[in-house]
Amino acid sequence: MALLRQRSRPGESGFRLTVSRAGDWTGSFIDDLPEQVWVKGITTAGVANIEVLFKKVVYVATGSGIGPCLPHLLAAEVPSRLVWATRGPRATYGDALVDEILAVQPHALVWDTSRHGKPDMVRLAHEAWRDFGAEAVICISNKKLTWQVVHGLERRGIPAYGAIWDS
């Protein structure tokens, strides 16, 4: 995964772009990062924007799902707790990104699947929700796991949200 930062001067606003290695094009993009990237369009609202409806939320992410969660975690507009399962977080995403996440989420559960295998994400999400006293859970993952987490928590009476993949 590559984390691109806008080259801005102090005091100027900037942005980040995360790119996950998903095939030949993204792999070559990451291996030979361009100096500039043209981005068409405007920022859109994702499912995580629902956080503002609640006093406390739990973010559940797997792999590069951390990308869409990151702006919300860093902005910290709503108190949150992170549960992130990914393969080799420091090797894959770099120390700087993991350290930045842990600086704003010191109680985050970062589960290294290469060391500990795949976890029961419904159980981990439920425990984080209970222990943190959250009102809702927001899941950013693949379709299968998002549905497992959302439906598994909803069956327990916990408000849970994820992408709907309806297009």
Give a verbal description of the structure.
With about 170 residues, the protein is an alpha/beta fold. It is built from seven helices and seven strands; from the N terminus they run E-E-H-E-H-E-H-H-E-H-H-E-H-E. The chain has helices spanning about 25-30, 65-75, 90-95, 95-105, 115, 120-130, 145-155, and strands at about 1-5, 15-20, 55-60, 80-85, 110, 135-140, 160. Strand 3, helix 2 and strand 4 (about 80-85) form a beta-alpha-beta unit. Helix 6 (about 120-130) crosses helix 7. The radius of gyration is 16 Å and the shape is globular.
Supply database-style keywords.
167 residues, alpha/beta, five-stranded parallel β-sheet, two-stranded antiparallel sheet, 20% strand
Q: How large a portion of the residues is in β-strands, by DSSP E?
A: 15-25%
- Share of helix among residues? 25-40%
Characterize the biggest β-sheet: 5 strands, parallel
Overall mean pLDDT:
87
**Protein structure class:** alpha/beta
- Spatial ordering of strands, largest sheet: 5-4-3-6-7
Q: How many strand elements?
A: 7
Q: What is the string of SSEs from the N terminus onward? A: EEHEHEHHEHHEHE
C-alpha-based Rg, rounded: 16 Å
Span between termini: 26 Å
The general outline is globular
Summed up, the helix count is: 7
Low-confidence stretches: 2-9
